[in-house]
Each structure stands twice: as structure tokens, then as C-alpha cells.
Amino acid sequence: MPETYRVAIVGSGPAGLSAAARAAQLGMSHILIEKTDHLSDTIYKYQKGKHVMATPSNLVLRSDVDFDAGKREFILDTWDRQIEECKANVRLNSEVTAITGTTGAFTIEIKGGETIQAEAVIMAIGTQGNPNKLRCPGADMPHIQYQLDDPGEYFDEQITVVGSGDAGIENALGLAADPAQRNIVTILNRSAEFARAKPANVTLLEEAERDGRISVRRETTPTDVRDKQLVLETRDGAETIPCDRIIARTGSQPPRGFVEKCGIEFTSEERSAFPKLSPSFETTQQGIHVIGALAGYPLIKHCMNQGYDVVEFLNGNADLKPADEPILAEKFSALPGNRSVDEWLEVFRENIVILRELSPLQMRELMLDGSVAAFDAGDVIFVRNDPGSSMFAIAEGSVSVEVNPADTSITVPIGRGSIFGEVGLISGRRRGSTVRAAEPVITLELSRTAALKLLATAPTADRAVRQITIERQLLQMFGSGLTPQDVTEMVEAAEAVEIRAGQNVIEEDADDTDFYVIQRGSMIVEKTIGGKPVFLSYLPAGSYFGEMAVIDGNRRSATVKAAIKSEVIKFPGDAFMRLLERNPKVRERALADMASRRQINAFVEERKESFSGAVDMYSETAKFLIDNGIGEATDVLLIDETLCVGCDNCEKACADSHEGLSRLDREAGRTYAHLHVPTSCRHCEHPHCMADCPPNAIKRGADGEVFIDETCIGCGNCQRNCPYGVIRMDPKPPKKPSLLSWLMFGAGPGPGEASYSWRKKTAQKKGLEQAKLAIKCDMCAGIDGGPACVRACPTGAAIRVAPEKFLTFTKLAEDVD
């Protein structure tokens, strides 16, 4: 009769090793089963020489094997030696194919037919064996690999790393570490943020980017893998780059089929969901415990603590608290109610919608990154126009949002379980409203980094936040006394769709009847006249379109396409019609908007014969404006060259308003016909410069202006990321004497931009620091009268406008007339 072990541990990663070492230390009958010929395959597969981090630094390590930050090789050697010293019972080259039975009598089947008996099972198999494959044409090409063993093996190659997590960043850094290898390394990130990666890795990547060792492509995805080439979908459209090799580090998924066959349930049907677990790591199949990455806790220190804890639980130590207990206890001590850590975790998880499907382990990790607070009725949580990009969730109580700054009595309530402040996660804008506690309230505040990490790793949370955002966008868009219940049907039917730059969302003369809201990006509306597209209007984020065909049942009257890479929310037309039928005021507003659009269409039809000379010019003008950043702009400086006399008053006024440094270059930039776009900030809807600023020095002001504050460290990331060349790196100049001082006493360099020699000489004389800082247009924020460049133009040639103001049919009509 074969021996029955008290516990069988499947997988020898950090969690499994720690569990085996604890069982050996306690004298517990055990076996550690590993399918490879070596221990800790996860760390073993790290690239050679990789520095392994030991985070979180404030978390105590519980384990009978040591672990501290260090080189991969040193850590593996330490673990091999210590596992041997503690006499852990290890069985290598044994792949588990099935686990059957119940508590006290499990059978573990090994490939080849042998079986192992155990009273309990600890599953610590991780997820690395199930990498996510690229999903695009050419994904089976031989030059794609999902593992990087030794970066030193590659020379003179153009290598693209796909993936924004720690593995992708570390692979890219390794491939670019030795200049003698002469590799050209690019890393792709589908979003603007590296939310999944450790801050230290992001910092190293940013340094490599600044040094020119790595090209970092944000908001970029691969769409076609070819021999020696890779086609990318970027924010501005398709682009093809040379590529000899692709390292795809796009994450991995739990081996769900195998785990479910063991009788274990998952938290949801999402591909990336984790098993349901109790606080003692027990699954829905009693007697089987899951720890480590498979439990949703990928950090090594967490995994090792779990390995220690689960064996202690099996040994009867029911009172053992997790290693993070003191940290969380201190965090919750400021809250009323005298509840335990476990009770507070359950309050937050059960009451807050976006957290309901998180496991207890995921909740603990999230709380380590979050801040909790209690407010009394009337307390201000944040004030309109305050800087801030964190997101709040309400665990108890409710808040009031003051939507009208002129009348604070006009408020919108947000109750328990919901969120607020989420707009800052996307736009970086200042707070749009003042929020007060309507009654005693308890909140969870997640920093931008923590919130984005939650949304990136918990699909259910991402879906819940998206639904809340859509609901609020609909309520804000239509107003007229609508309630959340009024738009429930539309929210539930909503579908988020990513649109490539230049891709059609609606095609003229089509008979579909969907309704759309622009969530991110912008759209161009065109109508075909004489076989050529005629530009009708521009639609920024927050606009809606498609309602005309829904309401009157006719075919589409125009084409709507993305100006830049965008995201739209698609709603079924019948759901939109039912909303209009139930709410006459909303219908009236929609009909009014539709009437104005019909006027434009009618005007085009009536005068299409006279457009022969104007259509081409105007369509090309619209294309020129979009190509030069208007598609993502919120405010642009334009110069009408038929009115400009070249006096340079605009540049001088800009310099005089900004300590002698002009933020614009009138002569630079591109011109089409009589319209010139000088080198001056567009104040993009989603600023490229803001996406990668280490000190978070780039902010958006109350009026939409994108500005750089005094915390700038001069890294130059913003200058490199701006596609329009509107940011310069320059030493901060000393304050210029006034114009009167110059006229009367000759003090200072006079009006306009101070010369570099004057700035340097004066700065040295005053002992000022001459480190370079990023300098760009701030729309003269805080200066009475608005932008100085516009005020100083004697002929009215210079104008600053939002794109929807000049990209309209009115301009075309004036030209034709």
C-alpha cells in the first residue's frame, strides 16, 4: 500500500518551495511535485542576470527559506541549498495530469501512470505555462518568442518587445543594456500608462528612453506580423517598422481547464479570472488549496508568505494572521466602528460594486495600495478645480456633488457602492466639481497608479467602472431630469469599440441604426459630393452621433470616421428610441440637434453645383488641419496669412508674459492655402506629454490648458513624446525688468524674447540654477485678458480656437459664397 502524505504540494515556485520548507520544518509528511528537472521554474526562466525585486518593502517575510532582492542566479542557488538542507521531500520530472478524490483521500495522477495519495493538496502551479499569444495575422511566424532566456545572445537585431508589465520592461532593458550588441530595441504598450509594472522598472525604462537606448511606443498595438516587418496601429494610424525578432510578454492565463477538472470554481467567466478562495486559501473543492500567482498574488514575497501560512493552517494554526495584518490594522484604525481587518475587508468588498468579485487575497493587496478615510456630514472631500487624479469609492454613506459652482444647492447624490473622481484617471483634468459628504461616509481612495492597476488586472472592476462612466456621460449629455434608472437599458446594452485613425464608424447611405457616443478621440463628418468627400464637421470626445437614422429611419446621410485612434460607445438604436419615447424633453433636444445637422446637409445639396472649385480646397484644408494635430486638440493657435503683417508682436507678447521665453514660433509650422499652424501647444485632449512625466509635473488647468508646474525635473520626456515639436528644453530665465525700466533706464534686454547670452549672464550674476526645464504654451493661464499672442495681434490674424469652432461647414459656406 503506497504512503499517503499529509499534504502534496504541486509546483515548486516561490509559493510551493516555501510551503515545502515549512512542512519539513514542522515534520509534516509531505511531497513537493515539480514537472521539470529543476526547482522554481518561474524564476529559473527569468533572463540571465536579472535583478529580482523583493517588494513590498514594508511587508515582513515569513518563510523557512531566505529571500531578498538580488540576482536570479544567487536566489536560485540559495533556494536549492536551503531546500536540500531542510530535507524537503522533492520529486522532479513529475507532471501532474489529474487530481481526484475528496478531503483526506486525494489521488494525484502523474504522467506515465503513477499515482500519489495525499490528505490535502496545495496547488502552487502558477500561470507561466499558459502565455497569451499575439492575436493578429502572422502570429505563428517563427521569429515570435514568448520567453527570453539570455539577452546577451542577440546582436545587430531590430527587436520589438510586446508587453507593458515587468517581464516586458526587463526584457527590453536587458536587450539594450550592452551597446556592443548593437540591438535596436522597441517596446510596445497598448495604453499610455505602465500600470502593471513596478515603479522601479518604469523608472529604469524611462531612463533608457531618455538616453535613446530604447524606443517606447505608447498607445500602440501590433496588427500584422511580417517577415522582417511589423505593422503597428498607433494613435495616428498604421505604421510599419523593421523587425527581426518579437519578444511577446503579454501575460499569461491560469490553466483553467485543468483547475476546473479538479472541482475548483473561478470568480467569473473572464479568461483572466482566479479561483474562488477562502481566507485560508481553500478552494470550492474542500481539501485543495491554491497559493501564489494562480491565486492572483504574483509578487514573490506574497507567494512565499502564503506557502508558509497555508501549511500552518493545515497544521491546525487557525489563529494565524497574514503578514500584512499589522499594516492593514494601522490603516483601518482611523475608521469608526472598531472592526477587525477581516471585517473591514468584507465591508469594502461587499459594499463597493467594483470590488465585489475580488478574492480576499486581491482585496488585501489592493488595500495596501489604497487610502481609507471617514468624513462627517458636510465635510469637503475635494474642491472643484483642485488638482488630483485619484478615484474614490464609497463603502458607507453617500456624497453630494455640487454641479453648479454658482449655486452650491444644486447637487447630484452618489450613494454607497459607487465611485467618483474617475474622470481624472483618463483626462488628468482638475476636479470638475466640489464633493461633500452628505452623511457620515467612509471612502477608499485609489491613486491613479493603483486604480489603473486594478482596472488592468480585474476585468470585472474595469467593466463596472466603464458602466458607471457611461451612465454618467449619458445623464450629463441629455440632462432634462434623467435618472440612472432611465438609462439602465442603454448602459446594459452599451458596447465599447476601439476605432483606428481613419476608420469609418458610419458610412454614408448605409441602413444601420446604431447610436454612438465618443468616449475618447474625435470624429470627422463627411459627405460625398461629385465623387469626392466634403468635410461637414468635427466631433470631439463627449459628442454623440448617429441619431438621425435612428429617429427618422432613413439611411445614413454622411460618413463619420475617426480623426485619430478613438473609442466610441455603441448603443442599439431601438434602446435609444425607447429612451426618447419615455422622455419628451430628451427627444426635443435630440430633434433640435438633428435639425441643425439637417440644415448643413440641405445646404450642401442645394449648392453642390457651385462646389466644384471649393470642395477640393476645403477637403484638403480639413485634412491638413487634422494631420497637424487638430484631431486631438482642445485649443489651437491659427494665423490667417492674408491678415498677418509679420510684425512678430505675438511672439514678443508671449515672451514678455513668460519671463523672456516665447512659447511659440510664428514662422515655424506648416501652412495650407492662407491658414498657418505655428509651433504652439495644441492642448491635446489626451496629451502625449502628460503620459510619461515622472514627477507628474504636467497638469490640465480649469480651462483645459495643459501646463508644466514647478516640479519639472528637466528629464525631457515630454519634449520627446510631443509629436508637434511644441515643447522646448531651456534654462529657466531670471525675471526680466519691466518695459518701463527698459525705456527709462535701459534695464534688461527689451521687449520680446531675451537672448540666451543675457539669460545666462544674468542668471550667473544672481546665482540662479541653470538646469534645463520643459517650457510650453500654457494659454497664459492666470493672466487677465487671455492669451497674449492673440491680444497683441494688430490685424486679428492670430486666433486661438477649439477645433469644433473652425472645422465647421460655416467656413465652407463663406468660401463658396
From TrEMBL:
Keyword Protein transport: no
UniProt KW Transport keyword: yes
InterPro entries to which the protein is assigned, alphabetical: 4Fe4S_Fe-S-bd, 4Fe4S_Fe_S_CS, cNMP-bd_CS, cNMP-bd_dom, cNMP-bd_dom_sf, FAD/NAD-bd_sf, RmlC-like_jellyroll, RnfB_subfamily
Pfam families, alphabetized: cNMP_binding, Fer4_11, Pyr_redox_3
Chain coiled-coil ranges: none
Annotated 4Fe-4S ferredoxin-type domain residues: 635-667, 704-732, 771-804
GO MF annotation terms: 4 iron, 4 sulfur cluster binding; metal ion binding
Boundaries of every Cyclic nucleotide-binding domain copy: 354-472, 478-597
SMART domains, per database record: cNMP
Superkingdom of source: Bacteria
Keywords: 4Fe-4S, Electron transport, Iron, Iron-sulfur, Metal-binding, Transport
PROSITE patterns assigned to the protein according to its UniProt record, in alphabetical order: 4FE4S_FER_1 (PS00198), 4FE4S_FER_2 (PS51379), CNMP_BINDING_2 (PS00889), CNMP_BINDING_3 (PS50042)
CDD domains in the cross-refs: CAP_ED, DMSOR_beta_like
PANTHER family: DIMETHYLSULFOXIDE REDUCTASE CHAIN B (PTHR42859:SF10), OXIDOREDUCTASE (PTHR42859)
UniProt protein name: NAD(P)-binding domain-containing protein
